[in-house]
Amino acid sequence: MSFEKLGLSEATLVAVRKKGFSKPTDIQREVIPLLMSGKRDLIGQSQTGTGKTAAFALPIIETVDPKVKSVQAMIITPTRELALQVADEIKSLRGEKRIYVYAIYGGQPIGPQIKALSKGVHVIVGTPGRILDHIRRGTLKLDDVKFFVLDEADRMLDMGFQEDIEAIFKELPEEKKTLMFSATMPMDVLLLAKKYMKDPEIVIVSRDELVPGEVEQEYVEVPRGRKYRVLKEILKEDFYGIIFCQTKRETRELESRLRGDGYQAEALNGDMSQAARERTFRRFKEGRTKILVATDVAARGLDVTGITHVINYSIPMNSEQYIHRIGRTGRMGKKGKAVTLLQPGEFRRFRYIAKQAGVEVRKSKISTDLIPSYRDPFRNEELEREYRQRWGRKKNHRRQSSF
């Protein structure tokens, strides 16, 4: 199916062509006709990178009346970075239509935001806390909202935004379309939908789209002392990507080491000011920085075209985190590569994560350099740990001596 068959106007189709979109993704093909024709609420299960922003942005652009100087659509995102990205995407899709799109989030002075809102904004994209702040100040009026979108709902609830979201729901008009997009559907997301949505249409993209099919996935077994050496081997490839670390301290240390060796690397973590994070992300998005060393929280929702590699320098905590990480590459039909570095003792855990994610990760050729003496003691330790968990600690029996 082509975009021409989705019910979009010619002006919007021109904007879509300028973006270089040739045919709709699964989520776009399912969602756009529903929003263009129906009045029902909608729940979409879709990972970042599957084109979901355009799926809700295009119908919003078609519906918004530029002559009405008020907020007609509001999108809530879990992070400031994602709010900026969604706002930029909508701006790039509006074409010649005079729609004013504005992003509001914390970490920035509120004065300029109040001034911008007073001039008349059609589409608001923002984080829950700052949006609620504007509502309570009376600087954000929601009387004319026709679309209300929760983007990455599961992550917002994980980050503790449920009370803010429910407070925003109570301020919205009764007649509107509520859209909820989430990569996973845990119980708290479903309960939120049940409470605030009216008989929603449910759209679930294929598993292949949740787990990027164009990503070549590998793991490398490596002793801790050799991790950095193996990382440098991977960086010899035509590399433009993200290295994921578990802690903020690790991102800073790895950035310093890479820069000392002449690599264009920058850290992105939660300790940085918002202005610094925006500058770092902008340099990476423009290709001036080739290596981003980031924590999961800082990199949540990053949408950058052309990322070639994702490196799990630290093993992900669970399957959702793994899918989120590797979803930064292999986007919109382009090929990518994801490599996970495993220290001795982490293989069994990673195998479980991959199984839960429904993916097959092959062993990298680099792993053949791992000396058996590094691997075997840890494998024996894993087997002993599994034995104790299943059967309990083995008791030592004393042999009684007969006299």
Automatic annotation (TrEMBL):
Entry keywords, A to Z: ATP-binding, Cytoplasm, Helicase, Hydrolase, Nucleotide-binding
SMART domains documented for this protein: DEXDc, HELICc
Motif (Q motif): 1-29
Tagged with keyword Transmembrane: no
Residue span(s) of domain Helicase ATP-binding: 33-203
Stretches assigned to the DEAD-box RNA helicase Q domain: 1-29
Cellular-component GO terms for this entry: cytosol
CDD domains in UniProt: DEADc, SF2_C_DEAD
UniProt xrefs under SUPFAM superfamilies: P-loop containing nucleoside triphosphate hydrolases (SSF52540)
InterPro entries according to UniProt: DEAD/DEAH_box_helicase_dom, DEAD/DEAH_RhlB, DEAD_box_RNA_helicase, Helicase_ATP-bd, Helicase_C-like, P-loop_NTPase, RNA-helicase_DEAD-box_CS, RNA_helicase_DEAD_Q_motif
GO MF annotation list: ATP binding; catalytic activity, acting on DNA; hydrolase activity; nucleic acid binding; RNA helicase activity
Annotated ranges, domain Helicase C-terminal: 226-378
Xref: Pfam families: DEAD, Helicase_C
Family the UniProt entry places it in: Belongs to the DEAD box helicase family.
The protein, known as: RNA helicase
Source species: Thermococcus gorgonarius
